[in-house]
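Justification of computing resources. Each target in the renewal requires a structure prediction run like the one illustrated here; the chain below, 171 residues long, is used simply to show the kind of job we budget for.
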Amino acid sequence: MKLLLVIAPENFRDEELEVPRSVFDRHGIAYDIASNKTGTCSGMLGATAEATLALDDVVPEEYVGIVIVGGIGAQDHLWGNARLQDLVRTFFESGCVVAAICLSPVVLARAGVLRGREATVFRSPASVQEMEKGGAVLVDIPVVADMDLITAAGPSVAEAFAEEIVDKLVC
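Resulting structure tokens:
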């Protein structure tokens, strides 16, 4: 069982990567980190992470789910990434877990998988507008699970977000 973790090449939210990674490690869940390109990616608070895969090189069949990390880098580098939107649709249509935290649920909205589904997002004027445009039913709670779609509002709920992902994987 392996997850695909997606981060922006710069300005991903550190704890939205680090906390889920520690939860996945504790549960024995393997993962790969992907970004727009391979190499060292930098977090908003100074953390770094190695993206061993470029999004263009991801083989969805090798994973049981996709987890998209937030931060301002998600808005700058991931919201408009057509390949990432394709991957989200592929995982969704395959019945895999699709999860996003902070500003990254907008990727799910733009991919068209949130139409009519409950979701949350880190609320900014742009993120709320994009979520509504994508047809999401926005709810104001920290972590939302609507079937295999999991969204979370920000770094303070990263652990609860990760535990919800684990719960969906072991069902």
